[in-house]
Write a structure and sequence with these properties.
Largest sheet: 6 strands, mixed
CATH class of the largest domain: Alpha Beta
Helix content: 25-40%
CATH topology of the largest domain: Rossmann fold
Order of helices and strands: EEEHEEHEHHHEHEHEEHH
Protein name: ABC transporter
Pfam families: ABC_tran
CATH architecture of the largest domain: 3-Layer(aba) Sandwich
GO molecular function, one term: ATP hydrolysis activity
Distance between the termini: 34 Å
Strand order of the largest sheet: 6-7-8-3-9-10
Number of domains: 2
Keywords: ATP-binding, Nodulation, Nucleotide-binding, Transport
InterPro entries: AAA+_ATPase, ABC_transporter-like_ATP-bd, ABC_transporter-like_CS, ABC_transporter_ATP-binding, P-loop_NTPase
Bound molecules: adenosine-5'-triphosphate
Number of helices: 9
Radius of gyration: 18 Å
Shape: globular
Number of strands: 10
Length: 246
């Protein structure tokens, strides 16, 4: 049987007295798009950092595409990628130079053809030779996505992919991600504060609060179970401890 995109078991991260993530377990199937939700400080970024192998869990284990991150991290990293607003691309390098660096890091064959393909797909041809530091937020988002796709990942971790975008550009990125997932079969784990975005893109949602997984289900399931009209209201119920009785 094909291994899951992500299998997390009892994933925990402690910083001294603070438990940022506590006993998080979930299995993200191949090709699925799931949302990772929670208020500020819920543990989303810490979770993503552990999934990427950037942080060593205090307890628990995670395997990505069948590779145990504790033993076989580099095999997993070659087959996954991520985008995060916290990672700035080197400002002085042009977009094409940045993508070339990442393509080499990932050992991509046919680098120039891949960059041209991504530039066409993400409407970046006009900015390819501009320094990354001179781009607008919308342009930076498209470059960050190109960077995240350079190695044709089978798993994509996206931290707030549309933060700071205007509604039109945000919509363009969402449509693009939907189409990309459908064409590539890539699994996506999306951390977002935009509930409408999550309802649109995600088949399943993990709700975190103070480091714990407190609920999960499809957006439609959660909305029905909480007797609400949309995921935003469910989020507020969970954040404010207004629980439904099982
Ligand atoms: N390096 C660190 N040292 C100590 N505590 C940390 C560290 N990184 C995160 N934390 C704490 O762990 C908890 C989870 O933080 P994390 O950044 O994962 O949350 P988040 O869900 O991504 O929040 P946000 O939506 O605000 O980005 C918070 O209480 C935070 O203060």
């Amino acid at each position: 049987m094909q291994s899951a995109a992500i299998q997390a078991e009892g994933l925990t991260k402690r910083y001294g007295e603070t438990t940022a993530v506590e006993s998080l377990s979930f299995t993200l199937p191949r090709g699925a798009t799931w949302g990772l939700l929670g208020g500020n400080g819920a543990g989303k970024t810490t979770t993503i950092a552990m999934l990427l192998g950037l942080l060593v869990p205090s307890a628990g284990r995670v395997s990505v595409l069948g590779h145990d991150m504790a033993r076989d991290r580099f095999a997993a990293l070659a087959r996954m990628n991520f985008s995060s607003p916290y990672v700035a691309l080197p400002h002085r390098l042009t977009v094409a130079e940045n993508l070339r660096v990442y393509a080499h890091l990932y050992g991509v064959r046919g680098t120039e053809a891949r960059i041209a393909e991504l530039a066409a797909a993400l409407q970046m041809e006009e900015i390819l030779h501009r320094p990354a530091g001179q781009l607008s937020a919308g342009q930076k988002t498209r470059v960050a996505l190109a960077k995240a796709l350079v190695n044709r990942p089978e798993l994509l971790l996206l931290d707030e992919p549309t933060a700071s975008l205007d509604p039109d550009t945000g919509d363009w990125v969402r449509t693009w991600l939907e189409n990309y997932r459908a064409e590539s079969g890539c699994a996506i784990l999306l951390a977002s504060h935009n509930m409408a975005e999550v309802e649109r893109l995600c088949g399943h949602v993990l709700m975190m609060k103070r480091g714990r997984l407190v609920d999960q289900g499809s957006p439609a399931d959660l909305v029905a179970r909480f007797g609400r009209d949309n995921l935003e209201d469910v989020f507020l119920d969970i954040a404010r401890d207004r629980r439904v009785e099982a």
